[in-house]
Each structure stands twice: as structure tokens, then as C-alpha cells.
Design goal:
alpha/beta, eight-stranded mixed sheet, globular
Length: 263
């Protein structure tokens, strides 16, 4: 391995450790039920300012989105909510059904016909299942995924005892369902994947490659899995993804059709 790659990996690992330490401090606060936004007066509903739902990953909670949530609120997204699915959940499909009920509740409470969703890791896969398999594409305008194993990850083979981990393995029944035809799917997908993500094995598994989906993949350099919902450059990319009607630019060079790279 080249010295530059080793140095980059060491920096990314040190950042991951620092983020993990901070996240462990915040984790208990993320277990407390979130105070929901009140319904706005009908005249205040802005059609383009859709509510954003944040969905955490495996054995995590909404505290992982403290920085991203703050970034969204400071930049015009006035309705940002999180969903904590049960830590006892053993089926990704069941979590997707819970997400569907939350989406409908948010739509009814805010008066918006559509929402946007940002999912980290497993959260992105749950949201994708809802969109593709449960009719969520009629309710979700844009789905942003951060380090999500769209093609399955082979990391930590001893963790296969947990049903959710098995569903994130390459070739699982859930992933085969998502790889199937999805004609007419209306949701825009933006997938952020990192070249130093040690949880996504291989790292390219966090890309979405599906002929029926409107997808834009964004390659992030130099950070790991836990940094994706925290890093300011990624937060800027997420904001742009939610606001844009087309591909995400994020001030970066284009690598190919539907792909962007950011440092």
C-alpha cells in the first residue's frame, strides 16, 4: 500500500475513533423520544421545502444525525425529524413498514404531499425498500443514502447471527428483491459512498446500480463510515441533493454518468 494511502487511512481511522467517542456520549440522548413539529398554518406551507426524515443505521439511534440535522435547519429546512426504529427489529421489511407509517403521519401533520429521507447505513436500505417495494415512491421525492450496503457488505462475518446483518449480506433475499425490476419508480436516489469506509466491504457496495432507478452516486474521499453523517462537506452535498432537481454537483468533478467525486 502506498504511503499516501496509508496516511489517509490512518487519518480517517483517527477521525472515526474521535467521532465514535463523541457519539457514545450523545447516544443516551438519542434514545429519548423526539418532540414532533406542530402542524403549520395552511398559509405557511412552502411546496418546495419538504419535510426531511432522518433514519439511522444498525444498533444506532437519532443521535448520529446531530450535526447533519443542525446543518439542515440552519440552511432553510425547517422541518427535520428523526425516526428511531426498535432495537429489537429483526426484519428490514418490518422497519420499512414503520417508516411508511411515519411518512404518512408527517405528511398529514405538515400538509406536504411528499417528504425527503436521509438514511445512514442500514437506514438507507430500509428507506429504499419502502420506496421500491411498498409504494413509497409516491410519497418520497428524494432519498439520500450515506454508506448504505446496496449490494451487500461482507464485513464482520461473525455478526451473521443477527437477522438484520444477514439481510445486509450479498445475495440476501431482501437485496434480491431490491435488485428486481422497479419500472416507473419516481423517487430520486443520491448515494454517498466513501473510499475509506471500513464497514462497506467492498466500498463500492454503497453505490446504487439499478437500470430502473434515477440514481446519482457521489464518491467521498478520505473519511470513514461514521464520518459520513457528520462531515461538513457531506452535509453540504446532502443539502444540495435535497434542494436540486437534477444531479448533485457539490463543487466537484464528474467521474462519469451519474457519478460525482468529493474530497
Amino acid at each position: 500500500m502506498e504511503l499516501a494511502k496509508v496516511t489517509a487511512l490512518m487519518k480517517a481511522t483517527a477521525l472515526e475513533v474521535a467521532i465514535l467517542t463523541g457519539h457514545l456520549v450523545l447516544y443516551p440522548s438519542g434514545m429519548i423520544a423526539e418532540r414532533l413539529s406542530p402542524a403549520p398554518p395552511p398559509t405557511t406551507i412552502a411546496p418546495g421545502n419538504r419535510p426531511v426524515i432522518l433514519l439511522h443505521g444498525f444498533v444506532d439511534n437519532r443521535s448520529v444525525f446531530v450535526m447533519l440535522r443542525r446543518s439542515l435547519l440552519r440552511n432553510g429546512r425547517d422541518r427535520v425529524e428523526s425516526l428511531n426504529y426498535s432495537p429489537l427489529t429483526c426484519d428490514l421489511r418490518a422497519a420499512a413498514e414503520v417508516l411508511g407509517r411515519r411518512v404518512d403521519e408527517v405528511r398529514a401533520r405538515t400538509g406536504h404531499a411528499e417528504v425527503d429521507i436521509v438514511g445512514h447505513s442500514l437506514g438507507g436500505l430500509i428507506a429504499r425498500y419502502y420506496v421500491q417495494r411498498l409504494g413509497g415512491d409516491s410519497r418520497v421525492r428524494t432519498l439520500v443514502t450515506l454508506g448504505t450496503p446496496h449490494a451487500g457488505t461482507t464485513v464482520a462475518p461473525l455478526a451473521d447471527a443477527h437477522p438484520l446483518v444477514r439481510q445486509m449480506r450479498p445475495g440476501s433475499e431482501v437485496l434480491r428483491e431490491l435488485a428486481g425490476p422497479a419500472p416507473g419508480c419516481r423517487t430520486r436516489f443520491v448515494s454517498f459512498w466513501s473510499d475509506l469506509d471500513q464497514v462497506m466491504v467492498p466500498v463500492e457496495t454503497a453505490r446504487i446500480d439499478h437500470p430502473d432507478l434515477l440514481v446519482h452516486n457521489v464518491r467521498v474521499s478520505g473519511i470513514g463510515h461514521l464520518a459520513l453523517p457528520v462531515h461538513p462537506t457531506v452535509a453540504a452535498g446532502v443539502r444540495e441533493a435535497l434542494d436540486a432537481g437534477g444531479p448533485v454537483a457539490v463543487g466537484a468533478r464528474t467521474e462519469g454518468s451519474g457519478t460525482t467525486s468529493v474530497a
